[in-house]
Design a protein that fits this description.
Helix content: 25-40%
Shape: globular
Oligomer: single chain
Radius of gyration: 21 Å
Strand content: 25-35%
Bound molecules: flavin-adenine dinucleotide
Structural class: alpha/beta
Number of helices: 13
Strand order of the largest sheet: 5-4-13-14-15-12-17-16
Amino acid sequence: MASTPQDTLFIAGAGIGGLTAAIALSRRARPVTVLEAAPALDPIGSGLQLSPNAIHVLRGLGLEEAVRRQAVAPEAIRVMSARTGKPIAEIPLGQTAETRYGAPYLVIHRGDLQQVLLNAARASAGIDLRLCTRVRDARQSADAVQVEVETDAGIDHLSGGALIGADGVWSNVRRRVMDLRQAVFSGRTAYRAVIPIEAVPAAWREATGLWLGPRAHVVHYPVSAGREFNIVALVAEDWQEESWSTPADTAALLARFASWPAECRDLLALPNRYLKWALCGMDPGTSWVNGRFALLGDAAHAMLPFAAQGAGMSIEDADALARAIDTTDHLPNALARYQATRQDRAESVLRLARSNDRVYHMAGPLALARDTVMKGLGGERLLARLDWLYGWRPPEGR
Ligand SMILES: Cc1cc2nc3c(=O)[nH]c(=O)nc-3n(C[C@H](O)[C@H](O)[C@H](O)COP(=O)(O)OP(=O)(O)OC[C@H]3O[C@@H](n4cnc5c(N)ncnc54)[C@H](O)[C@@H]3O)c2cc1C
């Protein structure tokens, strides 16, 4: 049966979740229009972690190989103490994770992942991707939505069957269209840099490093198929700005880490320039769906990146959304089903990220106790504690 304009699903945002959802819907022959505010999808950002749960979805969409070509499968996460400069634990990834979960644990530049998704979306039937198109507002009736967009040509109104807000942490669909509480600044800032791998000591080129210290931690890993190195310092500080790429004061950042072990300081000193990003989060418990409006990814459940699942959860959401829409032509029912499938899991991950925030930034005797517990458990058992997260798989079949 030919599709009508009323069947069109609008997705606000061609980020990680929005593009994945568009591809998953296109695989189910659903027409999708993706409305993206940015004039071009430039490779802004730095590294992302993609755990096996997300890779299973990408595999189902036929994108695993393209993602692997741009990514690295780190052999382990080396958890390091900022107090002693010594390892606390080594959590095995590499072949261990792949065997345990049936898919690899990868690290990748956000720009590379977005490009893979963009190529797939452009090659997919039924996806109309419109750049330079900002969703300003929307209204719904019993059988349709009307979306107000702003383009270079002015304001336009589009009619379709549903609007999915995949427009990220500062989602306008969440704030304006659905009138929900917006994400709040968390009092944490991420300082990010990507540098050529040649500058990095060989010992750190194939693993993920996680340095735990009082009120700060540092994460680093290779990206860009091993050609580049991503380093992020996450610190407790009360700076607030809605931007992914504010230039940071590198000297002030290095001064903040002056008492940290030399090995970590040397890594932090490698980039000439950092960009900073004020981290935001949301409280669990808000509905993501209202009739023909729904939220996905950070727009639904923005979380601190301390469980490394922001991208993973948006990819899982995208899969669940497409499956729910595939089950019925009644879009409000499909969206309600999508939320029912996803909310508990996404909010469990959000809580994990908050708990990691407390644990990673401990000081004094608490930090000592944390290190003793982690050492006692050892890497294999630390990994096993995350089986519920990494061991998730999409349902069998369509
Ligand atoms: C530019 C950028 C850089 C990032 N860099 C990193 C990083 O280095 N490391 C990391 O861990 N996470 C990064 N993130 C966040 C990360 O992508 C998300 O946490 C995760 O992937 C889940 O994203 P999402 O799919 O919910 O939305 P996102 O991937 O954040 O995408 C949201 C999209 O919506 C678009 N948009 C926003 N408002 C509107 C509107 N009103 N109308 C239409 N489109 C709109 C945005 O331009 C963006 O393309 C970045 C996000 C962005 C947008």
